[in-house]
Amino acid sequence: MHFLQLLSLALPLSLAVAVPYGAAPGGCKPSSPACCSNPLIRKEWRTLTTQQKQSYISAVKCLQSKPAKLSNLYSASKSRFDDFQASHVDLTPNIHWNAPFLPWHRYFISLYEQELRTTCGYTGAQPYWKLALDAGSEAAILKSPVLDPVTGFGGNGPYIPDAEAAAFPNLPFVVPGRSGGGCVPNGPFAKRNVSLALGDTLGYDPHCLRRDISPYIVTQAGNASVVNWALAAPNFYEFNIRLQGGLQPDQMTLHASVHIGIGGNSGDIANVNSSPGDPLFFLHHANLDRIWEQWQASAPGRRTDFFGPDKEWAYPFNFFGDIPYSNITADFDVGFGGLSGSKKVRDLLNPLTGPLCYKYA
Ligand SMILES: [Cu+2]
């Protein structure tokens, strides 16, 4: 594997409503706030009732059982759930360590939420994982309700040695504090076959879901102080840098807190390309989106503040040296492969307008 490609893997989170998701009642203009009079309310996982948790997990499992619609584009995609993962793999070079990162993932999560509702009859909203609630101490993360084997997504894999874990194509170094690495042994996704290969190949390689939790990375990168530091950024450009963080363990921040903190060396969620193979991806990115929304709402002018490089690994994310790039504005179009037509960033800046219709509790 190409060295840069390998490193890139290293860098890397209810309310039933009468109006269908995103629908525009009464012929209002799509850009009008009036189009979203009945937003979905996204809640933190542990605030859901047991029944609400079960219906979300059932909907995810349903999506994993529905036929793919994009197998013409991605032959390894065997289910509608796989379609989302494959699209993320396909678009990875355009959507991380650059400016489109946050708006792209905002709409991706929204499309997934909509799919759970339309294809699988789910009546709730996409839940989020407020990791900071579990990142205050190293002992807390392993007791997180999100990782509960009965009312959550299952926990850590059994320990495998460093050399075995480091052979997975996720990171070029052993993750400090890694504590698992084997197949997730419990919960609703135990031993589940992830269809797509780990990495960027889009190949078919069914394998068990793995996690390799590093309580050290979770607490370092995801604690409440890191969240507050990101929220204190004076502009979007700086907020985006603080939220995405750097590549080395001591530079990891909120984005890596779950990707590397839960994925470690061998976990599916640690791979920058194929990470949506672990259903926790969607709870983590909903949480990052919530933090962005909180920042956007916290001062005048922030709702429309958007600026930064178009290209992955371009300044200020030039960890591998300078490359050509352009700084983009909210007029930029972001693409979604076979999942959806492209969207202008400006139409993704407010979760209550345009193609979006949700808010956070
Ligand atoms: Cu991503």
Automatic annotation (TrEMBL):
Residues 278-289 form the Tyrosinase copper-binding domain. Residues 1-18 form the signal peptide. GO terms for molecular function: metal ion binding; oxidoreductase activity. Keywords: Copper, Metal-binding, Signal. It holds the Pfam family Tyrosinase. The keyword Signal applies. The keyword Signal applies. InterPro entries: Di-copper_centre_dom_sf (IPR008922), Tyrosinase/Hemocyanin (IPR050316), Tyrosinase_Cu-bd (IPR002227). This is Tyrosinase copper-binding domain-containing protein. It comes from Microdochium trichocladiopsis.
